[in-house]
Queue: 2 jobs
Job 1
Amino acid sequence: MAEENKTEQVTALTLAGLTDNPRLQVPLFVLFLFIYFITLAGNLGMVVLIRSSSQLQSPMYFFLSNLSLLDACYSSVVAPRTLMNLLMEKKTISLFGCATQLFFFIGFGTTECFLLAVMAYDRYTAICNPLLYPSIMSHRVCILLVAGSYLLGLLHSLVHTDFTFSLPFCRPAEVNHFYCGLMPVLALSCSDTRVNRHLVFGLGGLVEMVTIFAVLVSYAFILSAVSKISSAKGRYKAFSTCTSHLAVVTIFHGSILALNFRPRPSDILSTDKTFSVFYSLVVPMLNPLIYSLRNREVKNALREFFTWK
């Protein structure tokens, strides 16, 4: 009878949340609400600024506006549910809701990997082929590159979501996390998950290797081209357009690698939650701040926008 109860059909899951300490829940709610507000204001503000400013109509800023929109959506997959659960005693989520959250979380995260690689290629084209840049990176090509990033990201996510939610789940069906992450959900399965785990590390590793390799190759060519510029001022001007992108790539991929490929400590679950907070909530907040603080054209457009207002 106990075995039947364990393997009966599960229609809802329980999220363990970030902490069991009731004293921390309200401070965490306020903190995460502030982070989410800054994330939405920064990213959606960047989208509006780029669309409205005549100074920011190059392919680089077209990709940046799509990155900002993607970060706003990515954060919104996790933040509202996390905020709600911090105030609720019963942290349940339907199986369909969990599958939807997992699908968009993986999909938007993978899309960002490909979009950052596309942005590196854009910088390579602008610096190494400046005369051909307008024809190579036409508006049609830019749209196709963004659409391709979303297509690859959502297809990658669809594979994982389908394989994961085809499995039977055991009771008590509690996800030991604050959102429906892939590995915590797989841990609930009553059946063998070796195929799923190989798929996670195989496909996920492939996406990481391909996108990081594309970024590294692009910047290798950029460094080679910049080193041939005779004046220090010319080298600085050529490479200054890349610094914000490099910072975003380093933080984004660094957080992914730290979450998945670091040594496994004894308190692995709490450590995973800490890294996941940074990866899913803090990183999307940082991206518009990095681009607005380190990019002269964005700062000038901001000044012009508020002066006009």
Job 2
Amino acid sequence: MPKVLFLVAGYGTRLQRDLEASPSHRHLLGRPKALLPLGHSDALLTQWVDLFSSHTIPLSDMYLVTHHTAYPDFCAWALRHHLPLENILNNTTLSPEDRLGAVADIRAAIVHFQLQDTSLVVVGGDTLFLHDFSLRQFLAKEASLPKDSGGLVCLYTVPEENVSKVGICEINAQGILTQCVEKPSPHQTQSRLACPCFYLLRPLAIQHLLRYVEDHQESLEALDATGRFLGHVHSRCDISTFGISGRIDVGGLASYLEADAYMACLKQ
């Protein structure tokens, strides 16, 4: 089984502004996106942890990378859910201005936890998949890939008006990535396939990621969006794809309320 890394080092500035402006939601101010209550669960992150646990991935094989301010919150959550505290990495940043960037956070966690030689599922901590996502089928597809594959990512179809808001990928007839562009104009690509931050990276792709970060240390733009790394790695090793029906991203208050209502309805 692969190990799992949750990226929970974002500062959620848009959400915090929305919460400050909403008297009925100010009690959530300061809470990291991944720790927002969702449906009948105490946190978005708990939804993912429960899913991976139900597929025999132990808590000892799940890791988090977060920033200094949120670190105590994730430690408190981990204690309640029996995730080892030593599996949480504090990247020591204090504000959005000195953030490392998501790709650099992945590298920091891989090096710190010595994950270079394992397959690793990287999950964005502000992302929720729709109810029909099958982790079992996702893992089964990854297991069927050739030994020299770099890994597996998810794709879903977006309408034209959303193309410029997400990372868009192009694939060949075999479902292998041939292009990945971060937030393109709809006129830049005919593809409408969006790629959420849910990547299974095999050791070959992990080695490329480590080198990518070393080569782009002076460019926050290159390290801020994980899709930029996909745009780099697909030409160096095969990245296969797995179709899903959609996702909900917790960006601001409106999308959080949508995700909360969606999960609450599923439990009824």
